[in-house]
Amino acid sequence: MSALHSADSFLLSLSRAFCSPLAVFIQIQGCVICLTLAIGWAFAAYVRKREINRIEDGIKGGNSFAFLCHDIYELEHSNQVNLPRVSVVMPLKGFGEHNLHNWKSQITSLYGGPIEFLFVVESTEDPAYHAVSQLITEFKGDVDARVIVAGLSTTCSQKIHNQLVGVENMHKDSKYVLFLDDDVRFHPGSIGVLTTEMEKNPEIFIQTGYPLDLPSGTLGSYCIYEYHMPCSMGFATGGKTFFLWGGCMMMHADDFRHDNYGVVSGLRDGGYSDDMTLAAIAGTIASTKSFTRAHKRLITSPPVAVFPHPIASDLTFSRYWNYLRKQTFVLESYISTVNWLMNRALFLTHFYLSWGFVAPYFMAMVHVAAALQIYIKDYSYGETTCTSGGLLLAIWLAICTFTELLSMWNLTRIEVQLCNILSPEAPKLSLDYYNWSMIFVAMLVDNFLYPISAFWSHFSQTINWSGIRYNLKNGKIHKIERNKDKGPEFTDLGGKHLYGKKAATPKASLLGSLGRSLAHWHQPKKYDV
């Protein structure tokens, strides 16, 4: 038998240490986290699959437009003419490879009621201004769309400033306002679905949805996908939720006209994140509803509100890191003491679960390495005094990880299928190019880096977002710095050019032609308004 080398002795000692009661608890906890995620994604997949079955049953029953609405009679002219007016506000920043496709999917909506699209930019120097102006020219006369120059923000983030300027310019008769990010692809019937739900339940405060990330193949893009997936189960409830995504938010226009619940002042006066601020306001309303039933408002997410989100093909790891910093920086902004307490709870919970997820894999690697050393060098049991407990824990972790990845794959598969059904004219999405080995690595990388990013955000209180540096004080923006020479040239996820006139000439497409034809059919003319 071989004598123990110092390195081997250290490895085996470490393996024994990882069999202590505390270490065993951490490893079992890691298995529980994996299984909890798997169960959550399984439930989310059930909700999405149920909607797919409903659409397919509708098509088999003779409703060829089941991807638009449950009841085909809702498309009758007598129903369409009574639909409420909707203003769609899209804050823009920069121009990249996916923008034209995304914008076209948003303005070629099959919503039958009066609708306007307001693209809001910081200035005419933004590359998005020239690109979207050309797109609007292409659809001139068929779609009510215009570009609004908002100017520079001074009291809040530029995105929030653009949103509020868009609201100020919306049609006086608009009943609902829909805020959309420019980096997601919308389905033809999405606006109709959101509006129908708002009409059915006036107590809804905000309707939202969630993106389906389409990784580009880089590690950073898979980290983004993995980061979003745990939250996706919170948006697949089929109704009420506590989660809110700023990329898709439909609200009552009067809430902004009259600053109901402080939505305007809460955003304008030092607001950094639109969704977290509005979610905090919704939470305040919900917490007071036991004292007064007058303010019972909800956040809901329809089961069909999942939108393809293509990630830039050149996404670098540094841009992923800056995106992660922006996400953790959100927890440093707040509008009330209750909001601050909620953010601290989220901070600590995410910190604990992230490293609680990663630590068992490090322990499992030690157990496996120790077992291999015992086997390869033929150490005796007496020399190693190593039990099989550690290896057994590693095997259980592998089984739980496989179950988790299988559940994640199944949810992604179903959401891809749902998106293909909801956008029959769009290029088909596919699950074939997802690299699940990279996704597993991304799970470890993202969860390891999240606490580091959160601590960095907490102590720095500053972040660079699309070339603008925001500084927080007491949870609100108190200083905004702009310096093109020192800032990034591209946005994080979309890889959009932030400076210079980088526009491309839009080309005609089947989707665009269909959208213009349908828009001409159902859209009221400007002189009918």
TrEMBL record:
Spans traversing the lipid bilayer: 22-47, 351-376, 388-412
Molecular function via GO: ceramide glucosyltransferase activity
Enzyme category, top tier: transferase
SUPFAM superfamilies: Nucleotide-diphospho-sugar transferases (SSF53448)
Membrane topology designation: Multi-pass membrane protein
Subcellular location: Membrane
Keyword field contains Transferase: yes
Biological process terms in GO annotation: glucosylceramide biosynthetic process
The entry's keywords: Glycosyltransferase, Membrane, Transferase, Transmembrane, Transmembrane helix
Gene3D superfamilies: Spore Coat Polysaccharide Biosynthesis Protein SpsA, Chain A (3.90.550.10)
InterPro entries, per database record: Ceramide_glucosylTrfase (IPR025993), Nucleotide-diphossugar_trans (IPR029044)
Pathway the protein contributes to: Lipid metabolism; sphingolipid metabolism; Sphingolipid metabolism
A Gene Ontology cellular-component term: membrane
EC numbers for this chain: 2.4.1.80
Main location: membrane
Protein family (similarity comment): Belongs to the glycosyltransferase 2 family.
Cross-referenced PANTHER family: CERAMIDE GLUCOSYLTRANSFERASE
Name under which the protein is recorded: ceramide glucosyltransferase
